[in-house]
Amino acid sequence: MVVQTGTVATGAPGPRRAARGGVLVVVGGLPGSGKTTLLRRLTAEGRPGVVGLDSEDVAARLHDAGLRVPYRLVRPLVHAWHRVRVLWVVAGPAPVVVLTDPWTRPGWRAVVLRAARWAGRSVRLVLLDAPRELAESGQTARGRGVPAQSMHRHATRWSALLRDVESGTGPAAVTVVDRLRADRLTVADLLDREPGDLRS
C-alpha cells in the first residue's frame, strides 16, 4: 500500500537553509514493525553521507559498555540518550539522516520537525504499516517487548495518524508501505525519484 509522496513542509526557511540544506527521512511504525531492519538495509547500501539513527544502537552501546540489566529498567535512559542524539545529528552537517521512530507522539514529532526546519532540512516520511500482531511478534523475536499499555497507546495513535494521512489532513509528503513494499525500498527511492514513482 502506497498513499502519497512529496515534500513535507517544515515551515518558513530557517536561517541556515541556504548554507546547509539536507534531508531527514523518518521511518515510522509500531515497535517491532521492521523499522530497524529497513534502516540496516538502507545504510548497508554504503551511500555516502547517510547517517542512520535507531534507539537499538544506544541499547547496544550500553550493553557493550558492560551494563547488564533488564531492558525494561534501562529503557528510559536509552530513550533519553537517543532523543538527544537525534536532535544533535539532525542539527548537524550530515547530508541525509534516516531516523526510525514510532512517530506516534505529537509533541516529539513537533520537536523533530522544528529541529529539521532550523537546520534547513526537507523531510520525507515513510510509514511502515504492519499489523499490530506482526509488530508484537517482531518484538518477541528481538527480545525487547513493549509493555501492553504502552503498545496500546502506540497502536491507537498510529491508527489515528494513518487516518489523517488517508483523509488528506496529515502531512503532504508521506509514503505508506507494508512490509513487502518496505523490503524493496532503497535510498534512491527515498531521495531521487519523482513523486509517485514508488507506486511501480
Number of folding domains?
1
CATH class: Alpha Beta
Outline type: globular
Which regions contain 5 or more consecutive residues with pLDDT less than 50? Answer: 1-19, 193-200
* String of helices and strands: EHEHHEHEHHEHH
Output the radius of gyration. 16 Å
Task: Profile the largest sheet.
Answer: 5 strands, parallel
Strand content: 5-15%
Strand order of the largest sheet: 2-3-1-4-5
Helical amount: 40-55%
Q: How far is the first residue's CA from the last residue's CA?
A: 11 Å
- Write the CATH homologous superfamily: P-loop containing nucleotide triphosphate hydrolases
CATH architecture designation: 3-Layer(aba) Sandwich
Polypeptide structure, described:
This protein is α/β, with parallel strands linked by helices. The protein has one domain: P-loop containing nucleotide triphosphate hydrolases (Rossmann fold). 46% of the residues lie in helices and 14% in strands. The protein is built from eight helices and five strands; from the N terminus they run βαβααβαβααβαα. It has helices spanning 35-43, 55-64, 71-90, 106-119, 132-142, 148-167, 179-182, 187-191, and strands at residues 23-28, 50-53, 96-101, 122-128, 174-177. The chain has a five-stranded parallel β-sheet with strand order 2-3-1-4-5, sandwiched between helices. The protein is globular. The termini are close together. The model is unreliable at 1-19 and 193-200 (pLDDT under 50).
